[in-house]
Amino acid sequence: MEKIKTQLTNYPELLNDLKSLLTRAKYQAYKAVDNIRVQTYWQVGERIVREELQHQNRADYGERLIVNLAKDLGFIKRDLYRMVQFYRTYPIMTSLMSQLSWTHYTILMIIPSKNERDFYEQQVIQNGWSTRQLDKEIKNKLYQRISKKGSLIIKKKLPLKQIQPEQIFKDSYYFNFLDLKKDYKEKDLKNALLNKLEEFLQEIGQDFFVGRREMPILIGGNYDKIDLELFHAGLLCYILIEMKTEPFKHSHVSQMYSYLNWYKQNKQQKGQKAPIGLIICKTKDEETVHYALGDLKKEIFIADYKTKLPSKEQLKTLIR
Question: Which residues contact residue 213 at a Cβ distance below 8 angstroms, ignoring those fewer than 6 apart?
Answer without folding.
Answer: 194, 227, 228, 229
